[in-house]
Write a structure and sequence with these properties.
- The chain is an all-alpha fold.
- It has one domain.
- The protein is 80% helix and 0% strand.
- The two termini are 29 Å apart.
- The mean pLDDT is 86.
Protein backbone atom coordinates (compact mmCIF):
# COMPACT_ATOMS: atom_id res chain seq x y z
CA UNK A 1 0.00 0.00 0.00
CA UNK A 2 1.15 3.54 -0.68
CA UNK A 3 1.73 6.10 2.06
CA UNK A 4 -1.44 7.91 1.00
CA UNK A 5 -3.53 4.73 1.25
CA UNK A 6 -2.09 3.93 4.67
CA UNK A 7 -2.80 7.49 5.76
CA UNK A 8 -6.50 7.22 4.95
CA UNK A 9 -6.78 3.77 6.55
CA UNK A 10 -5.14 4.98 9.75
CA UNK A 11 -7.23 8.18 9.77
CA UNK A 12 -10.43 6.16 9.35
CA UNK A 13 -9.62 3.99 12.33
CA UNK A 14 -8.67 7.05 14.38
CA UNK A 15 -12.11 8.52 13.69
CA UNK A 16 -13.83 5.21 14.46
CA UNK A 17 -11.96 4.92 17.75
CA UNK A 18 -12.93 8.48 18.69
CA UNK A 19 -16.57 7.97 17.71
CA UNK A 20 -16.83 4.97 20.03
CA UNK A 21 -16.71 7.41 22.95
CA UNK A 22 -19.14 10.16 21.89
CA UNK A 23 -18.81 12.05 25.18
CA UNK A 24 -15.19 12.79 24.24
CA UNK A 25 -16.47 14.89 21.33
CA UNK A 26 -18.77 17.11 23.38
CA UNK A 27 -16.14 19.60 24.47
CA UNK A 28 -14.73 20.29 21.02
CA UNK A 29 -18.01 20.06 19.08
CA UNK A 30 -20.54 21.65 21.42
CA UNK A 31 -18.78 24.16 23.66
CA UNK A 32 -17.88 26.77 20.96
CA UNK A 33 -21.44 26.72 19.61
CA UNK A 34 -22.91 27.04 23.11
CA UNK A 35 -20.56 29.94 23.86
CA UNK A 36 -21.83 31.74 20.76
CA UNK A 37 -25.44 30.95 21.58
CA UNK A 38 -25.30 32.01 25.23
CA UNK A 39 -22.78 34.86 25.25
CA UNK A 40 -23.06 36.49 21.81
CA UNK A 41 -26.62 35.97 20.54
CA UNK A 42 -28.32 37.54 23.63
CA UNK A 43 -26.11 40.65 23.31
CA UNK A 44 -28.03 42.28 20.50
CA UNK A 45 -25.59 45.20 20.33
CA UNK A 46 -23.02 42.70 19.11
CA UNK A 47 -25.30 40.22 17.36
CA UNK A 48 -27.07 42.89 15.27
CA UNK A 49 -23.83 44.53 14.13
CA UNK A 50 -22.47 42.73 11.03
CA UNK A 51 -18.82 43.53 11.80
CA UNK A 52 -18.96 42.61 15.49
CA UNK A 53 -21.05 39.50 14.89
CA UNK A 54 -18.75 38.25 12.13
CA UNK A 55 -15.70 38.76 14.33
CA UNK A 56 -17.41 36.90 17.19
CA UNK A 57 -18.16 33.95 14.90
CA UNK A 58 -14.57 33.96 13.64
CA UNK A 59 -13.18 34.08 17.20
CA UNK A 60 -15.21 31.08 18.32
CA UNK A 61 -14.36 29.19 15.13
CA UNK A 62 -10.68 29.72 15.96
CA UNK A 63 -11.39 28.52 19.51
CA UNK A 64 -13.09 25.40 18.15
CA UNK A 65 -10.07 24.57 16.00
CA UNK A 66 -7.64 25.39 18.80
CA UNK A 67 -9.36 23.28 21.45
CA UNK A 68 -9.79 20.36 19.07
CA UNK A 69 -6.12 20.52 18.03
CA UNK A 70 -4.78 20.74 21.58
CA UNK A 71 -6.95 17.95 22.93
CA UNK A 72 -6.66 15.64 19.93
CA UNK A 73 -2.89 15.85 19.65
CA UNK A 74 -1.95 16.47 23.27
CA UNK A 75 -4.12 13.86 24.95
CA UNK A 76 -4.08 11.22 22.21
CA UNK A 77 -0.30 11.22 21.90
CA UNK A 78 0.20 11.20 25.69
CA UNK A 79 -2.24 8.30 26.12
CA UNK A 80 -0.82 6.32 23.21
CA UNK A 81 2.71 6.61 24.60
CA UNK A 82 1.55 4.75 27.71
CA UNK A 83 -0.02 1.87 25.76
CA UNK A 84 1.92 -1.13 24.39
CA UNK A 85 0.12 -0.72 21.06
CA UNK A 86 2.08 2.44 20.20
CA UNK A 87 5.55 0.83 20.33
CA UNK A 88 4.19 -2.05 18.27
CA UNK A 89 2.96 0.33 15.56
CA UNK A 90 6.44 1.81 15.32
CA UNK A 91 7.86 -1.63 14.52
CA UNK A 92 5.65 -2.01 11.45
CA UNK A 93 7.09 -1.24 8.00
CA UNK A 94 4.56 1.55 7.42
CA UNK A 95 6.25 4.99 7.25
CA UNK A 96 5.88 7.31 10.21
CA UNK A 97 4.54 10.02 7.92
CA UNK A 98 1.38 7.96 7.39
CA UNK A 99 0.59 8.11 11.12
CA UNK A 100 1.36 11.81 11.33
CA UNK A 101 -0.75 12.71 8.29
CA UNK A 102 -3.54 10.45 9.53
CA UNK A 103 -3.61 12.30 12.85
CA UNK A 104 -3.70 15.64 11.05
CA UNK A 105 -6.48 14.44 8.73
CA UNK A 106 -8.66 13.02 11.52
CA UNK A 107 -8.10 16.07 13.71
CA UNK A 108 -8.89 18.36 10.80
CA UNK A 109 -12.10 16.47 10.12
CA UNK A 110 -13.23 16.91 13.71
CA UNK A 111 -12.19 20.56 13.56
CA UNK A 112 -14.39 21.16 10.51
CA UNK A 113 -17.26 19.41 12.31
CA UNK A 114 -16.70 21.72 15.31
CA UNK A 115 -16.98 24.96 13.34
CA UNK A 116 -20.12 23.98 11.40
CA UNK A 117 -22.49 24.59 14.38
CA UNK A 118 -20.75 27.92 15.04
CA UNK A 119 -21.27 29.05 11.44
CA UNK A 120 -24.90 27.86 11.40
CA UNK A 121 -25.80 29.61 14.67
CA UNK A 122 -23.98 32.75 13.57
CA UNK A 123 -25.82 32.76 10.24
CA UNK A 124 -29.26 32.15 11.77
CA UNK A 125 -29.22 34.26 14.93
CA UNK A 126 -26.75 37.07 14.27
CA UNK A 127 -26.04 39.61 11.56
CA UNK A 128 -22.74 37.93 10.68
CA UNK A 129 -22.22 37.77 6.94
CA UNK A 130 -19.52 37.04 4.38
CA UNK A 131 -19.37 36.18 0.71
CA UNK A 132 -18.61 32.63 -0.40
CA UNK A 133 -15.08 33.48 -1.66
CA UNK A 134 -14.28 35.13 1.68
CA UNK A 135 -15.65 32.14 3.58
CA UNK A 136 -13.45 29.79 1.55
CA UNK A 137 -10.45 32.06 2.09
CA UNK A 138 -11.30 32.12 5.79
CA UNK A 139 -11.23 28.32 5.92
CA UNK A 140 -7.78 28.35 4.33
CA UNK A 141 -6.60 30.95 6.86
CA UNK A 142 -8.13 28.87 9.65
CA UNK A 143 -6.16 25.84 8.47
CA UNK A 144 -2.92 27.84 8.45
CA UNK A 145 -3.65 29.35 11.86
CA UNK A 146 -4.30 25.88 13.29
CA UNK A 147 -0.73 24.68 12.63
CA UNK A 148 0.80 26.21 15.80
CA UNK A 149 -1.96 24.68 17.95
CA UNK A 150 -1.44 21.23 16.44
CA UNK A 151 2.30 21.47 17.08
CA UNK A 152 1.76 22.73 20.64
CA UNK A 153 -0.48 19.72 21.22
CA UNK A 154 2.21 17.41 19.84
CA UNK A 155 4.79 18.97 22.17
CA UNK A 156 2.51 18.48 25.18
CA UNK A 157 1.78 14.89 24.17
CA UNK A 158 5.47 13.93 23.88
CA UNK A 159 6.60 15.91 26.93
CA UNK A 160 4.05 14.83 29.55
CA UNK A 161 2.17 11.84 30.85
CA UNK A 162 -1.53 11.45 30.09
CA UNK A 163 -2.66 12.72 33.51
CA UNK A 164 -0.41 15.77 33.34
CA UNK A 165 -1.33 16.47 29.72
CA UNK A 166 -5.03 16.84 30.59
CA UNK A 167 -4.32 19.62 33.08
CA UNK A 168 -1.75 21.38 30.91
CA UNK A 169 -3.97 21.31 27.81
CA UNK A 170 -6.85 22.87 29.74
CA UNK A 171 -4.66 25.62 31.19
CA UNK A 172 -3.01 26.38 27.84
CA UNK A 173 -6.32 26.34 25.99
CA UNK A 174 -8.15 28.79 28.25
CA UNK A 175 -5.09 31.02 28.70
CA UNK A 176 -4.68 31.35 24.93
CA UNK A 177 -8.42 31.83 24.46
CA UNK A 178 -8.83 34.63 27.00
CA UNK A 179 -5.53 36.40 26.31
CA UNK A 180 -5.89 35.94 22.55
CA UNK A 181 -9.22 37.74 22.29
CA UNK A 182 -11.33 34.70 21.46
CA UNK A 183 -13.79 35.22 24.33
CA UNK A 184 -13.44 38.98 24.80
CA UNK A 185 -12.62 41.31 21.86
CA UNK A 186 -9.13 42.84 22.08
CA UNK A 187 -10.63 46.33 21.78
CA UNK A 188 -11.69 45.94 25.42
CA UNK A 189 -8.21 44.91 26.58
CA UNK A 190 -5.93 47.09 28.66
CA UNK A 191 -2.98 48.43 26.67
CA UNK A 192 -0.49 46.02 28.24
CA UNK A 193 -2.73 43.01 27.60
CA UNK A 194 -3.41 44.09 24.03
CA UNK A 195 0.34 44.32 23.41
CA UNK A 196 0.98 40.96 25.05
CA UNK A 197 -1.79 39.22 23.12
CA UNK A 198 -0.19 40.15 19.79
CA UNK A 199 2.60 37.68 20.60
CA UNK A 200 0.16 34.78 21.12
CA UNK A 201 -0.79 32.33 18.32
CA UNK A 202 -4.48 32.58 19.24
CA UNK A 203 -4.57 36.35 18.63
CA UNK A 204 -2.57 35.97 15.43
CA UNK A 205 -4.89 33.23 14.14
CA UNK A 206 -7.92 35.37 15.01
CA UNK A 207 -6.62 38.38 13.14
CA UNK A 208 -5.56 36.25 10.16
CA UNK A 209 -9.02 34.72 9.75
CA UNK A 210 -10.78 38.06 10.29
CA UNK A 211 -8.62 39.57 7.57
CA UNK A 212 -9.48 36.68 5.23
CA UNK A 213 -13.22 36.96 5.92
CA UNK A 214 -13.68 40.73 6.20
CA UNK A 215 -10.76 42.07 4.21
CA UNK A 216 -8.70 45.09 5.22
CA UNK A 217 -5.00 45.35 5.99
CA UNK A 218 -3.03 42.36 7.27
CA UNK A 219 -0.57 43.63 9.86
CA UNK A 220 2.96 42.16 9.55
CA UNK A 221 2.97 40.90 13.15
CA UNK A 222 0.07 38.57 12.30
CA UNK A 223 1.64 36.48 9.53
CA UNK A 224 5.15 36.79 10.99
CA UNK A 225 3.84 35.49 14.31
CA UNK A 226 2.14 32.50 12.69
CA UNK A 227 5.33 31.60 10.81
CA UNK A 228 7.54 32.00 13.89
CA UNK A 229 5.24 29.99 16.16
CA UNK A 230 4.97 27.23 13.56
CA UNK A 231 8.73 27.04 13.09
CA UNK A 232 9.49 27.10 16.83
CA UNK A 233 6.88 24.50 17.74
CA UNK A 234 7.93 22.27 14.83
CA UNK A 235 11.52 22.30 16.04
CA UNK A 236 10.46 21.58 19.62
CA UNK A 237 8.09 18.80 18.50
CA UNK A 238 10.88 17.09 16.53
CA UNK A 239 13.22 17.35 19.51
CA UNK A 240 10.65 15.89 21.92
CA UNK A 241 9.78 13.11 19.47
CA UNK A 242 13.42 12.08 19.17
CA UNK A 243 13.91 12.32 22.91
CA UNK A 244 10.89 10.11 23.51
CA UNK A 245 12.15 7.64 20.93
CA UNK A 246 15.54 7.58 22.64
CA UNK A 247 14.00 6.98 26.06
CA UNK A 248 11.65 4.16 25.06
CA UNK A 249 13.40 2.43 22.14
CA UNK A 250 17.03 2.08 23.15
Amino acid sequence: MSTLSLTFVHARYNLIETARIPVALIGSLVFPALALLFFVVPQRTVADNPDFATQAVVSLAVFAIMSNSLFSFGLNIAENREKPWDPYLRTLPAPGLARVFAQVFSTGTLGVAAIIPVIVIGGLFTAASASLPHILLGLVALSVGALPFMLIGICIGYALSAKAAIAVVQVVMFALAFAGGLFLPPVLFADWLNTLSKFLPSRQARELVIWAVQGGTLEPWVWIGVVVWTALMLGLALFLFRRDEGHRFR
